[in-house]
Design brief:
By secondary structure, the chain is mainly alpha-helical. Helix content is 63%, strand content 0%. It has one domain.
Length: 52
């Protein structure tokens, strides 16, 4: 649920944000999203300043 909410917010800014963040992995969007750790998602929130 947390992952989906973060993806929704970041996708409003840039639809391909996850693919740009994981350059040249060859993964599909849904694979890239599902394989990230909680640490990745927390850093994404902090980096993109979407804390509130």
């Amino acid at each position: 649920m947390l992952r989906n909410n973060i993806d929704f917010i970041l996708s409003q800014m840039d639809k391909e944000w996850i693919l740009k963040a994981l350059l040249d992995t060859g993964l599909e969007r849904h694979q890239a999203l599902s394989q990230q750790s909680l640490g990745f998602w927390l850093r994404a929130v902090d980096f993109c300043r979407i804390h509130n």
